[in-house]
Each structure stands twice: as structure tokens, then as C-alpha cells.
Write a structure and sequence with these properties.
This protein has 151 residues and is mostly helical. The protein folds into 2 domains: 30 residues; 112 residues, no CATH class. Helices cover 45% and strands 0% of the residues. Helix 2 runs antiparallel to helix 6. The longest helix has 26 residues. It binds heme C. The site of heme C has 19 residues, from helix 3 and helix 5.
């Protein structure tokens, strides 16, 4: 009797494991290198941070406001004369970003706040509608990041 029940437990585990790999397989094709839904530091450092440092026509760079204002999205101040963050500062930024980047969720403020309202973004952002469309490659980088893209 005892033996039988442990077989049942083992079988149940197999079913759960199979279901888990099935659902993973379903979500895989759209983004082959998407990960487990956790945020990836390398991708953040090499692909996402540059988005915050890039000047877009008609807009101020994210880094200019978000190192000094009190918004939930906060970045470390650049050292005087520096145009990017060092390793330690990048690590700090990666911690800070977690306030506005929810793993696996397109409801993350970092994704919808700077996006134009007609493209599915928020109606108001103090820094403007920096991405006019979801096709903007920089916006897609933000999206890929919250969706767990690895760098
Ligand atoms: C001109 C200054 C300015 C610039 C440039 C700017 N922002 Fe903001 N941002 C603000 C202000 C002010 C707030 C807080 C008020 C609000 O929600 O709009 C804010 C809020 C946010 C929030 C937090 C939303 C929340 O409440 O959770 C996010 C995320 C954000 N900005 C992303 C960005 C990104 C990404 C960029 C660059 C593409 C950017 N911002 C550029 C001024 C700016």
C-alpha cells in the first residue's frame, strides 16, 4: 500500500514536470532566448542602460531627470566627465530598476510609462512620450528586458 502511494506521488510529479515544460514550450517561439521570467543583469548592463543614456529628438535623456528626481524610477548619478556607469554603479542601477521592472510583466512602469498613449502607454509622463510606437527598437529592448531576455 505504501509502495503504491509513492508511485502515485512520483507519477504526479511527472505530470507536473511535463505540464511545466509544455507551457514553457508554448511561450518559447516568440522569443527564443527569453529566460525564466527573471531579470538578467548582463542584458540590463549592455542593452538597457544605453537606452537611458540615448538622446531622442525632442526629448531629454532619461538619465538627466531620473538621477535627480524623486520618481520611483531612479538611476545612479554619472561620475563627472563620465558618459556611462561603471560596474558597481551598473549593479546598483540593476537593483534600483526592480522598483519599476516586474519580471515577466508588461504592466511594468518602465515599459508603459515612457510609451506614447496611442501606442498603449500611459497618458502622462513628466519625461514625455519618448517612444511613439511599440516598434521602436529601444522600447523593444525595455520590453525584452522585463520579459527575461538574457544578455
Ligand atoms: C524631463 C524629465 C524626464 C525625462 C527625460 C524622463 N522622465 Fe521619466 N519621469 C519623470 C517624472 C517627473 C516622473 C514622475 C511623474 C510621472 O509619473 O510622470 C517620471 C516617472 C517615470 C517612471 C515611473 C512611473 C511610476 O510612477 O512608476 C518611469 C518608469 C519613467 N519615468 C521612465 C522613463 C524613461 C524610460 C525615460 C527615458 C526614455 C524617462 N522616464 C525620461 C521625468 C522624466
Amino acid at each position: 500500500m505504501k509502495r503504491t502511494s509513492s508511485y502515485i506521488v512520483a507519477a504526479a510529479c511527472l505530470v507536473v514536470a511535463a505540464a511545466a515544460s509544455l507551457s514553457q514550450a508554448e511561450s518559447a517561439p516568440a522569443a527564443p532566448s527569453a529566460g525564466s521570467g527573471s531579470l538578467d543583469y548582463e542584458y540590463f548592463k549592455t542593452k538597457v542602460q544605453p537606452v537611458f543614456l540615448t538622446k531622442r529628438a525632442g526629448h531629454t535623456r532619461c538619465v538627466v531627470c531620473h538621477t535627480t528626481n524623486n520618481a520611483p524610477f531612479h538611476l545612479v548619478q554619472l561620475a563627472p566627465g563620465s558618459t556611462s556607469w561603471n560596474e558597481q554603479q551598473s549593479r546598483q542601477n540593476f537593483q534600483l530598476i526592480q522598483k519599476v521592472a516586474i519580471p515577466g510583466s508588461l504592466d511594468s512602469p518602465i515599459v508603459h510609462h515612457p510609451l506614447a498613449e496611442q501606442a498603449g502607454g500611459d497618458p502622462h509622463h513628466g519625461g514625455g512620450q519618448q517612444f511613439e510606437s511599440q516598434n521602436d527598437p529601444a522600447w523593444q529592448t525595455l520590453k525584452a528586458f522585463v520579459m527575461g531576455q538574457k544578455g
